Amino acid sequence: MEKIPVIAIFDIGKTNKKLFLFDEQYRIVFEESVRLEETTDEDGDACEDLQQLRRFVLDAVAALPGREQFDVRAVNFSTYGASMVFIDETGRPLTPLYNYLKPYPPSLRQQFYEQYGGETVFPRVSASPILGSLNSGMQLYRLKYEQPVLYKKLQYALHLPQYMSFLLTNTACSELTSIGCHTNLWDFRRQQYHEWTEKEGVRGKLAPLQPSDKVFGGNYPTGTGLHDSSAALIPYLVQFKEPFLLISTGTWCISLNPFNHSPLTDDELQQDCLCYLSFHGKPVKASRLFAGREHELQVTRIAAHFSKNENDFHHMRFDAALVRQLHLKYPDAGVFAKRELSAFASAEEAYHQLMIDIMAQQRHSAELVLQGGEVENIFVDGGFSKNELYMHLLAAAFPDKKVYGADVAQASAIGAAMAIHSTWNKKNAPENLVTLTKFAGAIPVS
Prior knowledge:
It contains 16 helices and 22 strands. It is an alpha/beta fold.
């Protein structure tokens, strides 16, 4: 039997850790998924269990030769960002994999920003709001000042995608989509490392910078690994040449505009805008909204109040007449969490108002990065792309744009595979990786 040529992609999320095998048409021909229990760091804060994660990856790779129907030609990684693994000269991790939500010491934050331009100037240069541990370079700065003994043993600080790659190649590297992901390490004006990394002496703790399509040798040709948000953008950049806005929805709804090259303003930074780096090393302007998490919390509240099952809301049909009634009843956008549920006659009415309130915030968030770009198409992927209310309300919020629900199976994993396409795939990338469903706005939202 002729073996199927495939690439193995590890897609490491905060909750699910997955292995995919893609064939040359980027179809999933094998999938494995696990959930790993968290552990705690030395302060008792929850964090990824790095040993379990390491074991999952190495065991899965060791099992690949036994999958005799497949010819595994390469391996790559897509993982969540803003997480650093500190390794010594033997490659052993020196610390836990600290959670990017770990509270950051106020005194250390003040010390850093006072020394390197202040809390107004520095974020403009680094293209990121002040986010504490979520600025992963600040984790390295913290290690230097709070754990100097371990810092002296530090050989390299690797972002999680690059640590995954290191496990298979024993080659340490840095990579642009991770370095450019609100790390405080990159100077977006000069397109190089920020000067503080030199002044603090941490530049030498960052492994050599490699392009996103770099491949290392080993049992399998292995990529550098990519930050998942940037990887998920790759199928869209490959398939669509006209300017577009991608709203990637999940816990966070992130509006990504690869075609807006205007510098971030103070006002945009204060409203949670930032820049990523694409796999080509180009700035991608983005804004963030915590809408997925808010949706989850409020659906729970509505379901409890009206004695409904939360699953009932996942496929609720869009009711344009009800939306028009609610606009007359509540002409001003509000925060749904502050609304009294007793004011609504039904769960359907309450849920429609929740989505109207979320869309008012979503419109504002998307408009922040639409400025200055000639975008005609808005693509939505992730959970909300299947939500009729969200999609129709978004189309109504942007009547001069074409709004599409986009479907691409496992976009971040496919992006990691496409980043090293020429290494393993002799065929051209398929032109229909992303399928689109157009939505029309049937009601006013102003």
